[in-house]
Amino acid sequence: MRSAAEDPDDQKLIDLVQPPTWKNPTPRNRYNLVAIGGGSGGIISALATAGLGGTSALIERHRLGGDCLNYGCVPSKALLSAAKVAHTVRTAEAYGVKLAEPPEIDFPAIMQRMRAVRAGIATHDSAARFAELGTDVFLGEARFTGPDTLEVGGQRIRFARCVIATGSRANVPPIAGLAEAGYLTNETLFSLTELPRRLAVLGLGPIGSEMAQAFRRFGAEVHAIEQASHPLSREDAEVGEVLTRRFQAEGIHLHLHSVVTGVESTETGKLVRYTTGGKEHTLEVDEILVALGRRPNIENLNLAAAGVETTRRGIFVSDRLQSTNPKIFAAGDVAGEYQFTHAADAMARLCVQNALFYGRGKLSDLVMPWCTYTDPEVAHVGISAREAQKQGIAIDTYREDFSHVDRALLESPSAEQGPIGFALIHTSKGTGKVLGGTIIGPHAGELIAELTLLMTTHRTLSHLAGTIHCYPTRAEVLKRIADKYRKTQLRPWIKRLLTRWLEWQRG
Question: How confident is the model at residue 104 (pLDDT cuts 50, 70, 90)?
Fold first, then answer.
């Protein structure tokens, strides 16, 4: 592990997003809006208010940029990019490209690149930049002192409206011996400078799945322990089956239907105890990554003083993101089921609209896509078949495999195996109105945007069928589904009429 003081890129990051010499400004008499939390939700809330001519303050207790910049999207995707290159080079012979020597993975260099890229991106989230854009930036712990007041760094701040966007952190369950043996979370993983020879990943949600695959591609022996029957248990079982086969093919040891019961230190590593089907097993590793969900950061806000009620998942909010204190709203991980940077962004915009302009924007009206950046990627938007059945919604489901898409075939390493993945689109029965969809395959996160746009603009598969797509592209998988839908609209009586018309043309 390396501290920030030992790394110039990490020091650059801190100088931008948590500058040691930063002096908090003198608070104004009363702010139009105060945002607590320097991640996406807080940043958007504060900057939007300032951009509209209001007065705003942004409060952050640690590093500006939030989890995404420091411990989430940015560093993890940098590692995934390096892991993909490593995998591509390692499997190049499948494309007829032979290497004289096997590739060498320089893990310290991979981590150094990640830190350099992160430091470069951090300029967009710097305290100085936000101040220049008209927002007062306060670094320190915020604590409510009343329904419209709070303190930070010994200074009292008054607000007309407030947005709480303090995010979340890794959930670390009380597993016997885990704390004593030591573990990694997404907040410490990216400080590694040496590749663990053996890594246990607890949980195969998005973070666990992405990092398990990345570290396996870097050369670590990876054991993934998951309570569910497949990775990404929130997704349909078929998606999980595809990922299971890919992970196993890459050499990840999957321990499914399993629960960790204890950890202990040994002379040569860390012994993980887990049960599968009632039977106890053990495995020894060098590091343990805990990826078992998230917990909201709300403990130290003194919410009771502000009259803000909470639940196990965070702050209790209405569909308009208003808390039990009408002056206080919440966005991001502390206020909903969507724990994504883009969700916090969208929710913050709703907060500004509703808080400052008595808007009527609803969280339930948002069309929220998400993507897990494994290889293949898994992207989803809207309703699933399982949810439709549970809610009693009649749907039509259309599917197309990437094995029928020329671009996917051309990029597949094996003509016999074919490309991995498929696209599913669910529509309101008989109408073609898109209610949801899932895509698993390369660039699924890009492709899901087309379905999201159809849903946002209330368009149907007929509009998609009438849209020209470049050839050859992976987006053709969606066009092929739309063409399938269009064929279902060719009713028997219409076909008979067309047949007679063509017969008449022939004379």
Answer: very high
